[in-house]
Amino acid sequence: MPGSNHKDHMSFDKLGLSPKVLDAVKAAGFTEPTPIQEEAIPPAIEGRDVLGLAQTGSGKTAAFTLPMLTRLEKGRARARMPRSLILEPTRELAAQVHEAFETLGAKHRLTVALLIGGVSFDAQDRKLDRGADVLIATPGRLLDHFERGKLLLTGVDIFVVDEADRMLDMGFIPDIERLYKLLPFTRQSLFFSATMPPEIQRITNTFLHNPVQVEVARRSAAAETITQRVVRAPKDAKAKRAKLREVVRMHENDVKNAIVFANRKTTVGTLEKSMQKHGFNASALHGDMDQHARLRTLNAFREGSIDYLIASDVAARGLDIPDVSHVFNFDVPTHAEDYVHRIGRTGRAGREGYSATLIAPDEFKYLTAIENLLEKKIEWVGDEPAQASSDTAEPEKKTRSRGGSRKRGQSEPSEKRVKQTKPESEAKPKSEAKPESEAKPDNEAKPDADKPRREKPKDDNRQSAKPRRQDKHPSSEVKSMPNAKSFTESGHIPAFLQRPVR
Ligand code: AMP
């Protein structure tokens, strides 16, 4: 089955799902399986371990929900001994998986218990006492129940770890290891991660038994509905903020809601103050906020009481951020995949999306990496810069011509109709006093991150900066997976990619 060449007309009927599950799939309106479903469902039904490299939006939730429903049709749960366990990094994701079980398992009459924080233990205890067929949990709350003696994990036949790399970001790896040791050796593991950093690799090597490996393409395909632009920007932080406002104001009439992404949490904080000061209805989402505060900000953004959400990749990861009309990248993400993630917040459900990315002279190399990943050039607003400054560009950059077929100086068609920005006087907010260029990326922030550092030579501060999530996305690992295949290979982009995804 894996690697089959009948992708165009693959049907759910061939995957080994039970008739009841097939009815549910039909009722949900799914006509054909997504690549991850096609690859993961048959071995999962056979009881094999599956290691899936797939992101949100790939249909991975159904890729584990559907075989689980099929397998759980036989057997009954016993009190306090769940038959299956799904681990999710956040409450929101846990709640979404719960919803998927309610929809797809509507006819199964299985007991599905959700163990997440912020809900009383009593109600959760009662559900566990009744016997749960499916337990969906975040690690902290699950272990709380376990430690209170309310839960036995020795009856778990199927263990799902979802979004493992987010678990890593959130510090849950020791919990996962502990849980694996509490589960019976014979359990089945269905393990999903968007990327394979070494820590995750280690876990899968240790705890998965001869897994079937499945990989699907990243969401770069979804970028087709997004108008992407790059804008030349100065390197100086204050001047760059002025440029950001200029770009945002060019689109002010069209912006319904927007996310402004920055690489570092110090920048996120500075941008929040700066944008508020300049009259934008903006609020930050940063890594230091607790889950509660993050949810409050997100709700305000969702309800429209905040127009501009300023976020770092880390703060945005794992959260159910609504569809937005515009994405502005104050910094170029140092990992090309993060760019795809960021712009994927717009242009969903077939709607038009717009993203603009500021490019300072020292950020050209990251743009090159993004264009290589997208396999296309991104158009410039206004004139294309002649050349990245020679001190920061990668060697191959110097020989590359940029900007595709667009002629130099040709004006940007979609920018014509927007009103021109008035020059503004930039009063300096207090928080803008410190240079930002040396601050560490959000997820690398160490206790000393905000201490002043020794000035580095001007021309190499980017090159010497540690890339964020250095251990992630090693493309060679991904490519070497035996059963790997992608949407792009098949030339087939399923319709579900155009739908909203969390
Ligand atoms: P996920 O990657 O699991 O978050 O799923 C992304 C979205 O795709 C969800 O809204 C699912 O309901 C939807 N979806 C999952 N599988 C299919 C399918 N085979 N056909 C159409 N939509 C799907």
For the record, the CATH architecture of the largest domain stands as 3-Layer(aba) Sandwich
Bound molecules: adenosine monophosphate
Strand content: 5-15%
Give the radius of gyration.
Answer: 24 Å
- Mean pLDDT figure: 76
> Using DSSP, what is the number of strands?
14
Q: What's the number of helices? A: 18
Broad shape: elongated
**Count of folded domains:** 3
> Under CATH, the topology of the largest domain is which?
Rossmann fold
CATH class of the largest domain: Alpha Beta
**Helicity, as a percent range:** 25-40%
Terminal Cα span? 30 Å
Widest sheet: strand order? 3-4-2-5-6-1-7
Low-confidence stretches: 1-8, 388-502
Main sheet record: 7 strands, parallel
Main structural class? alpha/beta
| The CATH homologous superfamily of the largest domain | P-loop containing nucleotide triphosphate hydrolases
Index terms:
502 residues; alpha/beta; Rossmann fold; 18 helices; 34% helix; elongated; binds adenosine monophosphate
Short note summarizing the structure:
The chain is an alpha/beta fold and 502 residues long. The chain has helices at residues 19-27, 35-46, 60-72, 91-104, 121-130, 139-147, 164-169, 173-182, 198-207, 237-250, 265-277, 291-303, 313-316, 336-343, 364-374, 461-464, 475-479, 487-490, and strands spanning 50-53, 84-87, 112-115, 134-137, 158-161, 188-193, 212-215, 226-232, 258-261, 282-285, 308-311, 326-329, 353-359, 379-380. It folds into three domains: 12-215, P-loop containing nucleotide triphosphate hydrolases (Rossmann fold); 226-385, P-loop containing nucleotide triphosphate hydrolases (Rossmann fold, 3-Layer(aba) Sandwich), CATH 3.40.50.300; 446-497, no CATH class.
